[in-house]
Design a protein that fits this description.
single chain, mainly alpha, 5 helices
Length: 111
């Protein structure tokens, strides 16, 4: 087994998450949900939640499962489910459910 430095581990993790997102999490582009419902579904799937907590409780590093690895899983799932590419500024700015909704709404041009 090759020895991976910290960066290699992240790449392996992101590759695995991307593969899972493509095969298991992809929503149809024309899903009969609004953006907020679709984003809520992504959050529930990524963080393995039965119900979505209050949106003001979904804050990066304050919500138990939303750590740095959870953040990369979330970014990958959002890019896959919404068929978009988030730029670095958006990835860094995505600090809450509400901020993620603002970013996705801006990219899709609606709420």
């Amino acid at each position: 087994m090759p020895c991976l430095n910290g960066h290699g581990i992240i790449f392996v993790f992101v590759d695995r998450v991307l593969s899972e997102a493509i095969t298991e999490r992809r929503l149809p582009v024309n899903a009969p949900m609004n953006l907020e419902e679709r984003l809520g579904k992504v959050f529930r799937e990524v963080f393995e939640l039965k119900e979505l907590p209050a949106k003001n409780e979904l804050i990066y590093k304050q919500f138990p499962k939303w750590n740095s690895l959870g953040h990369m899983s979330l970014v990958t799932a959002i890019e896959t489910d919404f068929d978009c590419i988030l730029d670095t500024n958006d990835v860094l700015a995505m600090s809450s459910f509400q901020k993620a909704l603002e970013i996705v709404s801006r990219i899709h041009g609606s709420a």
